[in-house]
Amino acid sequence: xxxxxxxxxxxxxxxxxxxxxxxxxxxxxxxxxxxxxxxxxxxxxxxxxxxxxxxxxxxxxxxxxxxxxxxxxxxxxxxxxxxxxxxxxxxxxxxxxxxxxxxxxxxxxxxxxxxxxxxxxxxxxxxxxxxxxxxxxxxxxxxxxxxxxxxxxxxxxxxxxxxxxxxxxxxxxxxxxxxxxxxxxxxxxxxxxxxxxxxxxxxxxxxxxxxxxxxxxxxxxxxxxxxxxxxxxxxxxxxxxxxxxxxxxxxxxxxxxxxxxxxxxxxxxxxxxxxxxxxxxxxxxxxxxxxxxxxxxxxxxxxxxxxxxxxx
Length: 312
Ligand SMILES: Nc1nc2c(ncn2[C@@H]2O[C@H](COP(=O)(O)OP(=O)(O)OP(=O)(O)O)[C@@H](O)[C@H]2O)c(=O)[nH]1
Ligand SMILES: [Mg+2]
Prior knowledge:
The structure is a single chain. It is built from ten helices and six strands, in the order E-H-E-E-H-E-H-E-H-H-E-H-H-H-H-H. By secondary structure, the chain is of the alpha/beta class. Strand 4, helix 3 (108-121) and strand 5 form a beta-alpha-beta unit. The radius of gyration is 22 Å and the shape is globular. Helix 3 packs antiparallel against helix 8 (208-237). It folds into two domains: 7-202 and 274-306, P-loop containing nucleotide triphosphate hydrolases (Rossmann fold), CATH 3.40.50; 204-272. Strands 2-3-1-4-5-6 form a six-stranded mixed β-sheet, with helices on both faces. The chain binds guanosine-5'-triphosphate and magnesium ion. Magnesium ion binds at residues 19-20, 34, 40-41, 60. Magnesium ion (MG) is lined by residues 19-20, 34, 40-41, 60.
């Protein structure tokens, strides 16, 4: 009997939402997790596992809101990965979107990350998406349950309305494999950004996710510019302040200018973003993925395209 084709499941979400920990729980792997002494995931990485007769590759991604890596770079990295795998015939069985239930309501950054994720997925593949809530053990259950209802009925409603499900992960192997099992019967899907990049030949900034990030950066830029103007005006008009108060204002102005500059650089980076900026770094990851798929396929089913995974 022919072996089933290997399955690929990607994990996305905010930094420290528990993506790498989920994979370690499921696959008994040793991916680096984010803690005080060590920062989290900055590259795409993978772990494989066997589940109910299926060979599964779990794909870990950096959080969209990593403060050390510009968001434009993270979007480009993830977009380039999705583009390359799609172009070489690999389809994802699903995406897990991780959200910590410890997030008090929905923070601004969580909301923006989620909106970016929605644009990246589009509507048609949402049946292959599971929103996984994490960190249940650090929130009193009555509060966590209220938040979960709020997420389902409000913040994630649009995704649930088009087929996504929300599941709870309690940081154990049993819960991780339970979540993964629900995706295994699903036919693999093409995600919106993959079609936009590969079939419609768009660049990253032209995709819906790229446009969403540009509009988020614009809004952030305007807000920071407004705050800078207000603080500058305050610094100019005040003679009554003590030297200490003035120093505080100067520090605040310096910080605001830095933030504004960072947002400006991010906007420029996004404008220049092309999927192929990351080809060299991704070459290894995608080749590894290709070799994995190829070596695990029964002899008669091996497609030729996986043998030559190279980049134009
Ligand atoms: N208490 C608790 N801690 C968790 C849980 N899941 C993850 N953590 C911790 O949360 C921190 C972040 O977890 P990671 O798995 O690194 O999160 P990540 O989403 O991969 O983070 P990035 O790689 O930075 O995007 C680590 O210290 C984990 O040990 C959970 O369910 N409960
Ligand atoms: Mg990580």
